[in-house]
Amino acid sequence: MREINTETLIGDMMVGDIDVAYSTYLGYDEIAHHSGVRDEDAWFALKGMVRQIRRLLNGNRYSPREYQFVIQSDHGQTNGATFKQRYGQSFEDFIKSLLPHDINMYAEMSSNEDHFAEVYVPFSDKIKYFKNRRKEYKEKKLLESEVVVLASGNLAMIYLTRWGHRLTYEEINEMFPDMIDEIVNNEYVGFILVRSSQRGDMAIGKNGTYCLDNDEIEGENPLEGFGDNIVHHLKRNSSFKYTPDILVNSFYDVENDEVCAFEELVGSHGGVGGSQSEPFILYPSDWNVPDEEIIGAENIYKVLKTNLANIKETAKTDRDSKASK
Known about the structure:
Layout: H1 2-15, H2 28-35, H3 40-60, E1 71-72, E2 78-79, H4 83-87, H5 91-96, E3 105-108, H6 124-144, E4 147-152, E5 155-160, H7 169-175, H8 179-185, E6 189-196, E7 200-204, E8 208-211, E9 216-219, H9 230-238, E10 246-250, E11 252-253, E12 258-259, E13 267-268, E14 281-282, H10 297-324
Parallel strand pairs: 3-4
Antiparallel strand pairs: 1-14, 2-13, 4-5, 5-10, 6-7, 6-10, 7-8, 8-9, 11-12
Helix pairs in contact: 1-3, 2-3
């Protein structure tokens, strides 16, 4: 896939009709999920990407117009043994053990499906048939379920779907008296995010609570070590229409830079903690980029769009200047 991406991009560069081209280089993310970010396999994949980028830079020397290059990641990854490996029970089963026996629960604990490989698998029609059957089964289970548990790396989302609104902290405690305490006190959970009818959004840890609406902390700060921007991100997440009733983030071991994923991945991203929250962007030195820290994908988008507009304006000015001469 990397070779195909590179050949396609160089072909576009040689023709010169494309103003902006974008491509994703595959391999590292998948390998790091299963081998970890420190494994030799992950470094081998990164070296392969570097070779392709070098080919693009060399190809630019022969294209009829000059292209600028921006290289960026969408996120990092953080290592760590999974919740199931550490606790001896999956997070799905742990939550199920906290619910009354007559409540139906649906869980989807894998966010790392390889959709690219499906294109090249033989008997794809039969695979499509079975996938459609599985989709119908999932939809039926969802309709029957009163609790839905989802996972993305070391982030888990618990939806109490019997009710048509996001339940408050007080409502959850009234209906499921031990649920929040049991989750928070699990040794592999770092904090949860819930909304209180009385105190607004709250991040709750084992020894303290952070009230996000007024930045008040009771006891120990449960968000300590999760990054300088964690409050901003949690407030933003809690503002979404489909924010879960309970959002769960695993613990973060600062010394070893480790989390524990709720899905079975050695390297993970999706929650917060460690290098998963450290994406990067390499851009031309003459670009107009603010000095302050860039926070969130929206602001990366603004940087890209602003500089694309600047490039177009500069090109137009140059054309007009040549025409006047």
